[in-house]
Specification:
This protein is 31% helix and 17% strand. By secondary structure, it is α/β, with parallel strands linked by helices. The chain has a domain at 30-210 and 218-260: 3-Layer(aba) Sandwich (Rossmann fold), CATH 3.40.50.11780. The strands form four sheets. The chain has a nine-stranded mixed β-sheet, sandwiched between helices.
Protein backbone atom coordinates (compact mmCIF):
# COMPACT_ATOMS: atom_id res chain seq x y z
CA UNK A 1 0.00 0.00 0.00
CA UNK A 2 1.29 3.47 -0.88
CA UNK A 3 2.39 5.74 1.98
CA UNK A 4 0.37 8.83 1.10
CA UNK A 5 2.16 10.90 3.71
CA UNK A 6 5.04 11.21 1.22
CA UNK A 7 3.07 12.32 -1.85
CA UNK A 8 1.30 15.54 -2.81
CA UNK A 9 -2.32 16.02 -1.67
CA UNK A 10 -4.83 15.14 -4.38
CA UNK A 11 -6.66 12.26 -5.99
CA UNK A 12 -4.60 9.07 -6.24
CA UNK A 13 -5.32 5.86 -8.10
CA UNK A 14 -4.66 2.29 -7.02
CA UNK A 15 -5.42 -0.18 -9.80
CA UNK A 16 -6.51 -3.70 -8.90
CA UNK A 17 -6.38 -6.08 -11.87
CA UNK A 18 -9.54 -7.86 -12.65
CA UNK A 19 -11.07 -5.87 -11.20
CA UNK A 20 -19.13 17.69 -9.53
CA UNK A 21 -19.99 15.56 -12.78
CA UNK A 22 -17.06 13.61 -14.23
CA UNK A 23 -16.23 14.44 -17.84
CA UNK A 24 -14.35 12.00 -20.02
CA UNK A 25 -10.77 12.96 -20.83
CA UNK A 26 -9.29 12.85 -24.30
CA UNK A 27 -7.71 9.60 -25.48
CA UNK A 28 -6.49 10.19 -29.02
CA UNK A 29 -3.79 12.87 -28.79
CA UNK A 30 -0.59 11.28 -30.06
CA UNK A 31 3.03 12.07 -29.31
CA UNK A 32 5.42 11.23 -32.16
CA UNK A 33 9.16 11.24 -31.49
CA UNK A 34 11.72 11.30 -34.29
CA UNK A 35 14.01 13.15 -36.64
CA UNK A 36 12.35 15.77 -38.87
CA UNK A 37 13.63 17.11 -42.18
CA UNK A 38 14.45 20.40 -40.46
CA UNK A 39 16.56 19.27 -37.46
CA UNK A 40 15.95 21.03 -34.14
CA UNK A 41 18.56 23.41 -32.83
CA UNK A 42 19.80 23.64 -29.26
CA UNK A 43 16.97 24.07 -26.76
CA UNK A 44 14.37 23.13 -29.40
CA UNK A 45 15.55 19.51 -29.38
CA UNK A 46 13.04 17.42 -27.47
CA UNK A 47 10.50 20.26 -27.20
CA UNK A 48 6.98 18.97 -27.80
CA UNK A 49 5.27 21.02 -30.50
CA UNK A 50 1.49 20.69 -31.03
CA UNK A 51 0.37 20.33 -34.65
CA UNK A 52 -3.18 19.95 -35.94
CA UNK A 53 -2.59 18.99 -39.58
CA UNK A 54 0.01 17.74 -42.00
CA UNK A 55 0.39 21.25 -43.42
CA UNK A 56 1.03 22.61 -39.93
CA UNK A 57 3.74 20.00 -39.47
CA UNK A 58 5.39 20.85 -42.80
CA UNK A 59 5.48 24.55 -42.03
CA UNK A 60 7.47 23.86 -38.87
CA UNK A 61 9.48 20.72 -39.55
CA UNK A 62 9.78 20.43 -43.33
CA UNK A 63 8.40 17.95 -45.84
CA UNK A 64 8.89 14.24 -46.41
CA UNK A 65 12.45 13.05 -46.80
CA UNK A 66 13.84 9.66 -47.73
CA UNK A 67 15.33 7.82 -44.78
CA UNK A 68 13.33 9.73 -42.15
CA UNK A 69 10.38 7.93 -40.57
CA UNK A 70 8.82 10.76 -38.57
CA UNK A 71 7.31 12.78 -41.47
CA UNK A 72 5.59 9.75 -42.98
CA UNK A 73 4.21 8.75 -39.59
CA UNK A 74 2.80 12.23 -38.92
CA UNK A 75 1.13 12.32 -42.33
CA UNK A 76 -0.25 8.83 -41.75
CA UNK A 77 -1.64 9.89 -38.38
CA UNK A 78 -3.63 12.76 -39.87
CA UNK A 79 -4.66 10.76 -42.97
CA UNK A 80 -6.23 8.13 -40.73
CA UNK A 81 -8.28 10.42 -38.52
CA UNK A 82 -5.91 12.01 -36.02
CA UNK A 83 -6.66 15.63 -35.14
CA UNK A 84 -3.91 16.69 -32.73
CA UNK A 85 -0.36 15.45 -32.25
CA UNK A 86 2.63 16.56 -30.27
CA UNK A 87 5.77 16.25 -32.38
CA UNK A 88 8.94 15.83 -30.34
CA UNK A 89 11.93 16.41 -32.64
CA UNK A 90 15.26 14.87 -31.72
CA UNK A 91 18.66 14.99 -33.37
CA UNK A 92 19.04 11.23 -33.01
CA UNK A 93 16.75 8.43 -31.86
CA UNK A 94 19.29 7.19 -29.34
CA UNK A 95 19.29 6.78 -25.56
CA UNK A 96 19.89 10.47 -24.84
CA UNK A 97 17.40 11.77 -27.39
CA UNK A 98 14.68 9.34 -26.34
CA UNK A 99 15.20 9.98 -22.63
CA UNK A 100 14.88 13.74 -23.12
CA UNK A 101 11.78 13.37 -25.29
CA UNK A 102 10.01 11.04 -22.88
CA UNK A 103 10.83 13.36 -19.99
CA UNK A 104 9.13 16.22 -21.84
CA UNK A 105 6.06 14.06 -22.39
CA UNK A 106 5.65 13.46 -18.65
CA UNK A 107 4.54 17.12 -18.49
CA UNK A 108 1.75 16.60 -21.03
CA UNK A 109 -1.05 14.66 -19.31
CA UNK A 110 -3.31 15.03 -22.35
CA UNK A 111 -1.17 12.64 -24.42
CA UNK A 112 -2.89 9.29 -24.95
CA UNK A 113 -0.69 7.54 -27.57
CA UNK A 114 3.10 7.41 -27.89
CA UNK A 115 4.96 6.48 -31.09
CA UNK A 116 8.61 6.44 -32.05
CA UNK A 117 8.30 5.60 -35.77
CA UNK A 118 10.90 3.15 -37.02
CA UNK A 119 12.33 2.34 -33.59
CA UNK A 120 12.58 -1.46 -33.33
CA UNK A 121 15.23 -1.91 -30.61
CA UNK A 122 13.33 -3.91 -28.00
CA UNK A 123 16.14 -4.44 -25.52
CA UNK A 124 16.70 -0.80 -24.61
CA UNK A 125 14.73 1.82 -26.47
CA UNK A 126 11.26 0.33 -26.94
CA UNK A 127 11.34 -0.85 -23.33
CA UNK A 128 11.75 2.78 -22.30
CA UNK A 129 8.62 3.76 -24.22
CA UNK A 130 6.61 0.99 -22.57
CA UNK A 131 7.94 1.88 -19.11
CA UNK A 132 7.02 5.53 -19.74
CA UNK A 133 3.42 4.49 -20.43
CA UNK A 134 3.31 2.08 -17.49
CA UNK A 135 4.64 4.70 -15.08
CA UNK A 136 2.10 7.35 -16.12
CA UNK A 137 -0.78 4.85 -16.69
CA UNK A 138 -2.65 7.30 -18.92
CA UNK A 139 -1.13 6.56 -22.34
CA UNK A 140 -0.44 3.67 -24.68
CA UNK A 141 2.67 2.72 -26.68
CA UNK A 142 2.15 1.96 -30.38
CA UNK A 143 5.26 0.07 -31.50
CA UNK A 144 6.67 -0.94 -34.89
CA UNK A 145 7.84 -4.47 -35.57
CA UNK A 146 11.24 -5.08 -37.11
CA UNK A 147 11.47 -5.65 -40.85
CA UNK A 148 11.84 -9.39 -41.40
CA UNK A 149 11.71 -11.55 -44.53
CA UNK A 150 11.13 -14.71 -42.42
CA UNK A 151 8.77 -13.63 -39.59
CA UNK A 152 8.32 -17.13 -38.10
CA UNK A 153 12.03 -17.76 -37.63
CA UNK A 154 12.62 -17.94 -33.89
CA UNK A 155 16.00 -16.22 -34.02
CA UNK A 156 14.90 -13.72 -36.67
CA UNK A 157 14.54 -9.97 -36.11
CA UNK A 158 10.79 -9.94 -35.43
CA UNK A 159 10.48 -12.78 -32.92
CA UNK A 160 13.73 -11.77 -31.25
CA UNK A 161 12.29 -8.29 -30.83
CA UNK A 162 9.03 -9.70 -29.49
CA UNK A 163 10.90 -11.80 -26.94
CA UNK A 164 12.38 -8.63 -25.48
CA UNK A 165 9.08 -6.80 -25.07
CA UNK A 166 6.62 -7.19 -22.23
CA UNK A 167 4.00 -5.14 -20.43
CA UNK A 168 2.21 -7.00 -17.67
CA UNK A 169 -0.71 -4.57 -17.64
CA UNK A 170 -0.83 -4.21 -21.41
CA UNK A 171 0.43 -0.65 -21.95
CA UNK A 172 1.80 -1.33 -25.43
CA UNK A 173 1.12 -3.17 -28.68
CA UNK A 174 3.35 -4.32 -31.53
CA UNK A 175 2.29 -4.04 -35.21
CA UNK A 176 3.78 -5.80 -38.25
CA UNK A 177 4.66 -5.70 -41.14
CA UNK A 178 5.69 -2.31 -42.46
CA UNK A 179 3.31 -0.81 -44.98
CA UNK A 180 3.78 0.35 -48.57
CA UNK A 181 2.82 3.87 -49.57
CA UNK A 182 3.18 5.72 -52.89
CA UNK A 183 6.70 7.03 -53.33
CA UNK A 184 6.55 10.86 -53.16
CA UNK A 185 9.67 10.93 -55.36
CA UNK A 186 8.73 10.51 -59.03
CA UNK A 187 11.78 8.30 -59.54
CA UNK A 188 11.35 4.51 -59.13
CA UNK A 189 10.32 2.55 -57.15
CA UNK A 190 6.60 3.30 -57.23
CA UNK A 191 6.16 2.46 -53.53
CA UNK A 192 8.29 2.65 -50.39
CA UNK A 193 8.03 0.81 -47.07
CA UNK A 194 7.39 2.87 -43.94
CA UNK A 195 6.75 1.86 -40.30
CA UNK A 196 3.03 1.69 -39.48
CA UNK A 197 2.87 3.18 -35.96
CA UNK A 198 1.76 6.67 -37.02
CA UNK A 199 -0.98 5.26 -39.23
CA UNK A 200 -2.11 2.93 -36.41
CA UNK A 201 -2.30 5.84 -33.96
CA UNK A 202 -4.51 7.62 -36.49
CA UNK A 203 -6.76 4.56 -36.72
CA UNK A 204 -7.09 4.55 -32.93
CA UNK A 205 -8.01 8.24 -32.98
CA UNK A 206 -10.59 7.54 -35.69
CA UNK A 207 -12.19 4.72 -33.71
CA UNK A 208 -12.23 6.86 -30.56
CA UNK A 209 -14.02 9.64 -32.43
CA UNK A 210 -16.55 7.54 -34.35
CA UNK A 211 -17.43 4.90 -31.74
CA UNK A 212 -15.42 5.31 -28.54
CA UNK A 213 -12.24 4.19 -26.89
CA UNK A 214 -13.92 0.85 -26.14
CA UNK A 215 -13.91 0.03 -29.88
CA UNK A 216 -11.11 -2.38 -30.76
CA UNK A 217 -8.92 -0.63 -33.35
CA UNK A 218 -9.01 -3.56 -35.76
CA UNK A 219 -10.73 -4.46 -39.04
CA UNK A 220 -10.03 -0.85 -40.00
CA UNK A 221 -8.58 0.42 -43.28
CA UNK A 222 -5.13 1.97 -43.28
CA UNK A 223 -5.68 5.11 -45.31
CA UNK A 224 -2.71 6.09 -47.44
CA UNK A 225 -1.33 2.54 -47.58
CA UNK A 226 -1.43 0.68 -50.88
CA UNK A 227 0.15 -2.57 -49.73
CA UNK A 228 2.18 -4.36 -47.08
CA UNK A 229 5.86 -5.21 -47.18
CA UNK A 230 5.15 -8.87 -46.36
CA UNK A 231 1.93 -10.67 -47.28
CA UNK A 232 0.94 -12.96 -44.43
CA UNK A 233 -1.20 -16.05 -44.87
CA UNK A 234 -3.64 -17.25 -42.21
CA UNK A 235 -1.23 -19.82 -40.77
CA UNK A 236 1.54 -17.29 -40.36
CA UNK A 237 -0.77 -14.77 -38.78
CA UNK A 238 -2.04 -17.42 -36.38
CA UNK A 239 1.51 -17.92 -35.12
CA UNK A 240 2.12 -14.18 -34.77
CA UNK A 241 -1.26 -13.66 -33.12
CA UNK A 242 -0.38 -16.28 -30.51
CA UNK A 243 2.68 -14.16 -29.74
CA UNK A 244 0.49 -11.03 -29.48
CA UNK A 245 1.93 -9.46 -32.63
CA UNK A 246 -0.82 -7.55 -34.43
CA UNK A 247 -0.89 -8.22 -38.15
CA UNK A 248 -1.56 -5.81 -40.96
CA UNK A 249 -3.22 -7.73 -43.78
CA UNK A 250 -4.29 -7.14 -47.33
CA UNK A 251 -7.22 -9.30 -48.33
CA UNK A 252 -8.37 -9.73 -51.96
CA UNK A 253 -10.09 -6.61 -53.25
CA UNK A 254 -9.28 -4.60 -50.14
CA UNK A 255 -6.62 -2.09 -49.14
CA UNK A 256 -4.45 -2.96 -46.11
CA UNK A 257 -6.34 -3.35 -42.83
CA UNK A 258 -5.40 -3.68 -39.17
CA UNK A 259 -6.12 -7.30 -38.27
CA UNK A 260 -5.16 -7.58 -34.62
CA UNK A 261 -5.85 -5.87 -31.29
CA UNK A 262 -3.61 -7.52 -28.70
CA UNK A 263 -1.28 -5.97 -26.17
CA UNK A 264 2.16 -7.13 -25.05
CA UNK A 265 0.99 -9.07 -22.00
CA UNK A 266 0.96 -12.76 -21.25
CA UNK A 267 -2.11 -12.39 -19.02
CA UNK A 268 -5.76 -12.46 -20.00
CA UNK A 269 -7.20 -9.38 -18.19
CA UNK A 270 -5.22 -6.86 -20.26
CA UNK A 271 -4.88 -8.85 -23.49
CA UNK A 272 -6.82 -6.47 -25.72
CA UNK A 273 -5.85 -2.93 -26.74
CA UNK A 274 -9.34 -1.51 -26.25
CA UNK A 275 -9.69 -3.00 -22.74
CA UNK A 276 -6.43 -1.42 -21.60
CA UNK A 277 -7.24 1.93 -23.17
CA UNK A 278 -10.83 1.98 -21.87
CA UNK A 279 -9.79 1.30 -18.28
CA UNK A 280 -7.04 3.93 -18.55
CA UNK A 281 -9.66 6.36 -19.87
CA UNK A 282 -11.96 5.62 -16.91
CA UNK A 283 -9.13 5.99 -14.41
CA UNK A 284 -7.80 9.21 -15.90
CA UNK A 285 -11.29 10.70 -16.17
CA UNK A 286 -12.01 9.93 -12.51
CA UNK A 287 -8.69 11.33 -11.30
CA UNK A 288 -9.38 14.56 -13.22
CA UNK A 289 -13.08 14.74 -12.36
CA UNK A 290 -12.83 14.08 -8.64
CA UNK A 291 -10.34 16.78 -7.70
CA UNK A 292 -13.17 18.69 -6.11
CA UNK A 293 -13.15 16.08 -3.33
CA UNK A 294 -9.59 16.86 -2.21
CA UNK A 295 -9.70 18.70 1.15
CA UNK A 296 -13.49 18.26 1.44
CA UNK A 297 -14.81 17.10 4.85
CA UNK A 298 -14.34 13.34 4.95
CA UNK A 299 -17.89 12.39 5.91
CA UNK A 300 -20.65 10.10 4.60
CA UNK A 301 -21.94 13.10 2.64
CA UNK A 302 -18.66 13.16 0.71
CA UNK A 303 -18.89 9.42 0.11
CA UNK A 304 -22.40 9.79 -1.24
CA UNK A 305 -21.29 12.61 -3.55
CA UNK A 306 -18.40 10.53 -4.86
CA UNK A 307 -20.68 7.54 -5.43
CA UNK A 308 -23.16 9.69 -7.31
CA UNK A 309 -20.54 11.34 -9.55
CA UNK A 310 -18.76 8.10 -10.37
CA UNK A 311 -21.96 6.14 -11.01
CA UNK A 312 -23.27 8.85 -13.33
CA UNK A 313 -20.04 8.78 -15.34
CA UNK A 314 -19.88 4.99 -15.53
CA UNK A 315 -23.52 4.84 -16.59
CA UNK A 316 -22.59 6.97 -19.59
CA UNK A 317 -19.68 4.64 -20.37
CA UNK A 318 -22.07 1.67 -20.20
CA UNK A 319 -24.68 3.39 -22.37
CA UNK A 320 -22.01 4.06 -25.01
CA UNK A 321 -21.29 0.31 -25.22
CA UNK A 322 -18.06 0.23 -23.26
CA UNK A 323 -19.30 -2.00 -20.43
CA UNK A 324 -21.05 -5.36 -20.60
CA UNK A 325 -24.40 -5.88 -18.93
CA UNK A 326 -28.14 -5.68 -19.48
CA UNK A 327 -28.36 -3.07 -16.73
CA UNK A 328 -25.96 -0.56 -15.21
CA UNK A 329 -25.93 -2.66 -12.04
CA UNK A 330 -24.56 -5.60 -14.04
CA UNK A 331 -22.00 -3.41 -15.82
CA UNK A 332 -20.27 -1.86 -12.81
CA UNK A 333 -20.32 -1.29 -9.08
CA UNK A 334 -19.03 1.51 -6.85
CA UNK A 335 -18.25 1.09 -3.16
CA UNK A 336 -17.29 4.04 -1.00
CA UNK A 337 -18.44 3.55 2.58
CA UNK A 338 -17.24 2.78 6.08
CA UNK A 339 -16.35 -0.81 5.18
CA UNK A 340 -13.31 0.40 3.24
CA UNK A 341 -12.92 3.75 5.00
CA UNK A 342 -12.62 2.90 8.71
CA UNK A 343 -11.60 5.47 11.30
CA UNK A 344 -7.81 4.99 10.93
CA UNK A 345 -8.11 5.66 7.18
CA UNK A 346 -10.17 8.79 7.76
CA UNK A 347 -7.70 10.08 10.35
CA UNK A 348 -4.96 9.91 7.71
CA UNK A 349 -7.07 12.13 5.43
CA UNK A 350 -7.64 9.40 2.86
CA UNK A 351 -10.74 8.19 1.02
CA UNK A 352 -10.83 4.81 -0.69
CA UNK A 353 -13.16 3.99 -3.55
CA UNK A 354 -13.60 0.51 -5.00
CA UNK A 355 -14.88 0.18 -8.56
CA UNK A 356 -15.67 -2.95 -10.54
CA UNK A 357 -16.06 -2.89 -14.34
CA UNK A 358 -17.43 -5.53 -16.70
CA UNK A 359 -15.48 -4.48 -19.78
CA UNK A 360 -16.51 -5.58 -23.26
CA UNK A 361 -13.96 -7.57 -25.24
CA UNK A 362 -13.66 -8.05 -29.00
CA UNK A 363 -14.79 -11.27 -30.65
CA UNK A 364 -11.57 -12.41 -32.31
CA UNK A 365 -13.09 -15.63 -33.62
CA UNK A 366 -16.59 -16.26 -34.91
CA UNK A 367 -17.29 -19.99 -34.64
CA UNK A 368 -19.83 -21.57 -36.98
CA UNK A 369 -21.20 -25.07 -36.41
CA UNK A 370 -22.49 -26.45 -39.71
CA UNK A 371 -24.62 -29.55 -40.06
CA UNK A 372 -25.40 -31.14 -43.42
CA UNK A 373 -27.80 -33.97 -44.31
CA UNK A 374 -29.86 -35.14 -47.23
CA UNK A 375 -32.30 -32.45 -48.17
CA UNK A 376 -31.12 -29.64 -45.88
CA UNK A 377 -28.51 -27.82 -43.87
CA UNK A 378 -28.29 -25.73 -40.73
CA UNK A 379 -25.81 -23.22 -39.37
CA UNK A 380 -25.65 -22.18 -35.73
CA UNK A 381 -23.36 -19.54 -34.30
CA UNK A 382 -21.44 -20.02 -31.06
Amino acid sequence: MVDYSTVAPGVHLEEITPAGPVSGVGTSIAALIGIPAAPPNGADAGRAVPVTSWNAYKSTFGDLRAGLHLPYAVRGFFDNGGTLAYVVPVKAVDADGLDAALDRLTRLPEVGLVCVPGLVDAGLQQDKVIKHCEDLQDRFAVLDGAQDAAPLQNDGPLLTQRGGLASGNGFGALYWPWILIPNPDPAPPATIAVPPSGHIAGVMARCDATVGVHRAPANELLRGAVGVEYTLNDTEQGVLNSRNINALRRFPGSPPVVWGARTLTDGLPWRFVNVRRLVSYVEDSLVAGLRWAAFAPNTPALWKGLDRSISEFLTRVWESGGLFGRTAEEAFYVTVDESINPEPVRQRGEVYIEIGLAVTRPAEHVVLRIGLWDGGATISEA
